[in-house]
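F.,

This is the one I mentioned.
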């Protein structure tokens, strides 16, 4: 654990992870809060609740690169101010909005969600050395797993005690508090030797959004497609066995083993390629469908859990290495968008498979989706060397070359 102590000893790192955990935990609970509001307060169907969740997710997917680009150009505090105000207005309005207005407002709230996760990743890349980065991103992945375990559970517990409207107000207050705390902390998003990256102009997308970056984004999409599908397959398997009440236990085992896997991976002496980790994640997920009751399912998801956080960590590390400092916000935003799209599409894809076959087919579909993304990422990564981040001298040389060819 010496490596992790060194990471936490980096000035500002412990406070960044603490504040980020508050913000991310509340953000992971927004879908559950809106679902319970639509079902319990508006007395509408789960299909209607799913439509609101889909609108929010679509906004999140589109908003990632938009907010990242704004951070690159306008700075962190400006973006946080805008998003915090939008979230405050949205969550104060949720209890009084009619359903159709809620659909549009949910999309806008997703589009301008407080960018806690991308900002944390940018700050980690800026605050750590190349040797420290893998362990730091492993901690970030563990933080994400813990937030997904805590956030929705707290909302469900609160909804059982108070009205969904009060839960919405409380959640909105927590999101605003998290975003405000990040703004007050104002972590650096560029290392000291990258401070002048903005002054030389943004590199064109063709210089950094090449085959290597597309490979990593494909794997980011594939990872969350798999994870979203596994969650649904777990519930379907237990429902068929008449044991759906044990789903929380299985998901807790899944989450805890992911935390353990992330900590183990961060302590390894050498990194592993993201495509290899994702491929192993897909392979160990497929046989989980052989479990037919909750004790065996707890055992079956251990393998999937152990590779979850390491895969997410490796993908994040790869994005940080491939993105030049001047566009790191946009690059991490694209990663968040790819992961949001994977979460949105994973459940429907696996759901169709389960309906057409058996719950075990859900694990197979999720695992095969991960394997397909890993294979694609591997082939794209080996197609040609990943582009090096362009230097100001290289960009100036390219501009002069282009100018000499102008007729």
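My design for it:
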């Amino acid at each position: 654990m010496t490596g992790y102590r060194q990471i936490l000893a980096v000035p500002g790192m412990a406070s960044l992870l603490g504040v980020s955990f508050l913000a991310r935990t509340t953000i992971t609970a927004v879908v559950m809060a809106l679902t319970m509001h639509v079902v319990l307060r508006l007395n509408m169907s789960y299909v209607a609740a799913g439509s609101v969740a889909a609108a929010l997710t679509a906004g999140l997917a589109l908003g990632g690169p938009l907010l990242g680009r704004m951070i690159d150009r306008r700075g962190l505090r400006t973006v946080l101010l805008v998003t915090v105000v939008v979230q405050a207005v949205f969550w104060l309005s949720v209890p009084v909005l009619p359903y159709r207005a809620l659909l549009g407002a949910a999309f806008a709230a997703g589009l301008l969600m407080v960018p806690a996760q991308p900002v944390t990743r940018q700050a980690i890349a800026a605050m750590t050395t190349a040797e420290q980065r893998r362990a730091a991103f492993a901690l970030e992945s563990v933080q994400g797993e813990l937030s997904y375990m805590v956030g929705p559970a707290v909302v469900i517990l609160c909804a059982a005690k108070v009205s969904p409207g009060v839960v919405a107000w409380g959640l909105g207050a927590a999101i605003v508090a998290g975003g405000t705390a990040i703004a007050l902390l104002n972590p650096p998003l560029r290392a000291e030797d990258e401070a002048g990256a903005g002054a030389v102009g943004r590199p064109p997308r063709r210089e950094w959004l090449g085959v290597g970056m597309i490979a990593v984004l494909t794997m980011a999409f594939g990872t969350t497609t798999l994870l979203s599908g596994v969650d649904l397959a777990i519930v379907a398997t237990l429902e068929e066995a008449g044991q759906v009440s044990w789903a929380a236990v299985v998901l807790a085992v899944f989450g805890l083993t992911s935390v353990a896997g992330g900590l183990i991976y961060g302590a390894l002496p050498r990194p592993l390629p993201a495509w290899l980790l994702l491929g192993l994640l897909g392979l160990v997920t497929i046989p989980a469908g052989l479990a037919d009751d909750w004790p065996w399912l707890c055992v079956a998801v251990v393998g999937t859990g152990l590779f979850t956080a390491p895969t997410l960590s490796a993908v994040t590390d790869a994005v940080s290495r491939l993105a030049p400092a001047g566009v790191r916000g946009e690059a991490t935003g694209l990663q968040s968008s790819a992961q949001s799209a994977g979460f949105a599409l994973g459940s429907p894809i696996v759901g169709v498979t389960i309906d057409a076959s058996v719950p075990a087919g859900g694990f197979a579909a999720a695992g095969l989706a991960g394997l397909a993304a890993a294979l694609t990422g591997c082939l794209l990564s080996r197609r040609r060397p990943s582009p090096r981040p362009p230097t100001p001298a290289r960009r100036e040389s390219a501009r002069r070359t282009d100018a000499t060819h102008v007729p």
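The domain at 203-386 is CATH 1.20.1250.20 (Growth Hormone; Chain: A;).

Talk soon.
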